[in-house]
Amino acid sequence: MSTCGHAGILVFGTQDYPLAVRISLALADVGFPVATLTHTKHPVRQTRRIQRHFPYHSQFRFSSILSAINRWSPDLIVCTDDLAVRVLQALHERVAARDDEAGRRVASLIERSLGPPTSFPAMRDKSVFLALAESEGLRCPKTIVIPASHAFEPLDPEITYPVVVKADHSDGGRCVRTVNRNADLRTVVWELQTPDNWWARRFLGAILASEALGVLKLPLRRTISLQQYVLGRPSNRAVLCWKGKVLAGISVEAVETTQDCGPASVVKVIDHPEMTLACERMVERLQLSGFVGFDFILDSANRAWLLEMNPRVTQTCHFVLADGTDFAASLCTQMNRMPARSQPATVYQDLIALFPNEVRRSPSSQYLRSCQHDVPWDEPELVRCMLNQGGRTGIPKRRMFLERRLPLVADALVRLGLVGTRTGPVPMPPLPDDVVPPALERALNVGTSAVGSLGIAASAISAVPAGGQTFAVLAAENASALSERREIGGKGSKV
After folding, report:
1. What is the pTM of this model?
2. Domain limits for position 447
3. d(Cα 455, Cα 150) in Å, to the nearest integer?
4. What pLDDT shows up at residue 207?
5. Residue 32, domain CATH
6. Cα 223 to Cα 167: distance, rounded to the nearest angstrom
7. How do beta strands 34-38 and 52-55 pair?
8. Residue 471 is assigned to a structural domain of this protein
9. DSSP conformational letter for 326
10. How many domains does the chain have?
11. Closest alpha carbon to 201 in 190, 211, 186, 209
């Protein structure tokens, strides 16, 4: 069985997203030596199959990257969030200006990982990407671009609402809003000028958009795009590309999302030729390399409208489909000119609940039982870490202080719409005690091959926060099902 030889991968993430975990494991499974460059508390450090972990310090971002490159000597850098891409592009600009061998080596590595520097503006700015897509003749929503450093002026009164307002230099849907009337547009535009992690963004947006400050004609800090609203189903196509050529791709339709304009939590695998063609055209035009995601809307006529590009790993890049689609294996074959390790299909249904997104969105979700739940059952410590992290994310410290010390003020801000409601897990009522034992007994009766999986499930069960017994039941059931599939089909079976 062939492996990927000595080609090494550095997985780079500036945010504590699960994407770094899933793609690191997928790359390691096909034989790549994998190292990560993340914050020291990132969940990826709970995995057992990653060879090295290097610390990333945002205050010393360039030195952190250069140190990891010098110590690991990777053949490719895989970015798992948009900020990581922007930091790499900034580092490329710095080292490319140096006239030395070390600088040229780092610049070449970044170009091999992302694409040529001529494509960097389209990766960074949504407005630039859409302009290029329109020039390629692809179907895109009508867009009005308001450049940064320009004052926000009243728009054409004939503009059709609703419109989607987007800010450049953002990710994860944190700078995307849908506006239904002209009276709210100015407030939303100024809200998106504030930093993504500010808890009082709506309040500050309302102040900056007031008539008193409007007379000052303050310049915008970020470029804003006003995009025609297309009614339809959010979809995405993830691709692996190499110097302008698509090596593999997976198209999905979002069935559930964690929030409006946010990441998907339940997806359906689809085949859509128009999405496939659009991605190939843009990959070739920009000569992209690495993992890239393209967002679409499928309208009532099933036509694909291209919305934006994410030049990084997306949520489906670690999937191994029954038809043989495997991003990690395709990358191994491309980089080493030899077959990768054969992997069993990890996706054997069309409908998939993404972990941990769906359990965070709704611990009692019907999709956790009715479709495949994409949980890394063989990494119990990782499952525990990701579940515990889910209980802490999305609640800024200032907001926690307000809710604890000044609950009436916090409630008033929510009622006025100046802050959103909490997006963390919703507490569930406990299930009866007699629900779990049958599932555990079923796993025990599978045979000796189930013992390892049962231990994994037991570890996952112990990680579940209070009120999350449904996930505990699923852990036991999935352990049993996993063992049964291995007994019946063996390694590499496609169920």
Report:
1. 0.77
2. 361-392+427-489
3. 59
4. 75
5. 3.40.50.20
6. 6
7. parallel
8. yes
9. B
10. 3
11. 190
